[in-house]
Write a structure and sequence with these properties.
single chain, mainly beta, 18-stranded antiparallel beta barrel, two-stranded antiparallel ribbon, 10% helix, 53% strand, globular
Length: 417
């Protein structure tokens, strides 16, 4: 169990050369860290977040395992004259378990320059390019997709050039060009691919309504003729209850629309949120539909992935859900978030993603408390559910058989510096 915290499973181990370069940059950053108060007077700021975690995983074969993890996200920002800043961030990780011993990894997460002028901003480098207003599942956030179950995850960046124009205070026009890697590990092998994305977005805001339109073209590196066009719309209404609507249409111009087809698809999410008791309780409910899901209501998860294939490929749906880009096997989903702030320094959060077709649920229960300034103690529990736990025969998309675990628990201490 090399990734105790599922929020960080979007990270892939680096090749030796890339890993050595990242660790060298981290060493340089750590050298400057003690000097940060002095450097801060010049505009250079060094900061970060570190987290120590102990985790327990209970497998479906009734075995269990324990592992420890030390993670750090180190950040450096510096001024660029009077009109910009330079940003960099690095992730470093050490994990230890009886099965694997000690494993260390490193990754460059952010490395970009942000230039700001009167009506134009320019961002260049390795960064995140977010879209959409939805607070849970967000179909239009397709360049660096967020995991709704782990919204605080540090997402992998993409190489991008982003030009933003502000013709009026409430209007924003953005053009972007992105190079994104789609490399992934499959067993002991690694496959590399990449794609280029070009597009425009438009944002308009007022006191009640925020609206964002998005149009982009994706060109695969190996098969440029198989390009895709995507059109997105995101709406947010700020009334007594917050309402969001996000939708995305995907087409390659050749494939006819039908459920189960990825290159001619519709995705839409409708949600509402409300806070009460002076903000102590926050509730978010969302419905999500995606036509690209390969499984219909009559299909079984085992028709697509049986246990042996999951074990061999390492691509169970639970791992998809825990990665930065969530893949959905079916078409109808519900998402729920409940946040209870029972004091100024402690909060309980429950997040649940459910497949409405097979009644499987993937809940995450998380409690945080801040005993002293800049230190947070986090307890987290994950328990997949489906009908097999109550005598059913069909495994659910988010159930324990597909996930390969009955439960996972972790205890973490997070500190900011």
């Amino acid at each position: 169990m090399n990734n105790l915290d599922p929020r960080r499973t979007n990270r892939n181990p680096l090749s030796p050369k890339r890993g050595a370069l990242t660790l060298l940059l981290v060493a340089i950053l750590l050298f400057f860290l003690p000097l940060s108060p002095v450097l801060g007077q010049t505009g250079l700021v060094v900061s970060g977040v570190a987290e120590t975690t102990l985790g327990i995983l209970f497998d479906t074969d009734e075995s269990w395992s324990v592992a420890a993890e030390q993670f750090a996200n180190l950040r450096l920002t510096a001024p660029i004259g009077n009109n910009g800043r330079f940003y960099s961030a690095f992730n470093v990780l050490a994990t230890s378990s009886p099965e694997t011993g000690i494993i260390t990894e490193g990754e460059l997460e952010r490395l970009y320059a942000a230039l700001q002028f009167d009506t134009v901003d320019i961002n260049l480098g390795l960064m995140r390019v977010p879209f959409g207003y939805g607070m849970g599942i967000r179909p239009t956030d397709i360049i660096n997709p967020r995991n709704p179950l782990f919204p605080d995850a540090r997402l992998r960046g993409v190489m991008a050039t982003v030009l933003t124009w502000y013709p009026r205070e409430e209007l924003q026009v953005q053009g972007f060009a992105v190079q994104r890697s789609t490399d992934y590990f499959e067993g002991q092998r690694i496959s590399f691919d990449g794609e280029s994305l070009f597009g425009l977005s438009l944002d308009h805001h007022n006191s009640i309504l925020s609206i964002q339109g998005l149009a982009l073209t994706t060109v695969p590196g190996k098969n440029p003729d198989n390009y895709r066009l995507q059109l997105g719309l995101s709406l947010k209404f700020d009334v007594a209850v917050g309402v969001t609507f996000d939708t995305l249409i995907t087409t390659d111009g050749r494939t006819e629309f039908d459920e189960g087809r990825e290159n001619a698809a519709l995705a839409a999410a409708l949600g509402c949120d409300y806070s009460f008791l002076d903000g102590r309780i926050f509730l978010l409910a969302q419905y999500y539909y995606t036509s690209a899901g390969p499984l219909s209501q009559s299909d079984s998860v085992s028709d697509l992935l049986n246990g042996e294939e999951i074990a061999e490929s390492g691509k169970s749906s639970i791992q998809f859900i825990q990665s930065s880009g969530t893949t959905f096997l079916r078409r109808h989903y519900g998402f729920l978030t409940l946040l209870y702030n029972h004091s100024d320094y402690a909060r309980l959060q429950i997040l649940m993603l459910t497949s409405l077709t097979d009644a499987s649920i993937f809940p995450t229960i998380r409690h945080e408390i801040e005993p002293v300034q800049a230190v947070t103690v986090v307890s987290q529990l994950v328990i997949p559910f489906d009908t097999t736990l109550f005598g059913g025969t069909d495994a659910g998309e988010f159930g324990p058989d597909v996930a390969g675990l009955h439960a996972a628990a972790s205890f973490s201490v997070k500190y900011r510096f």
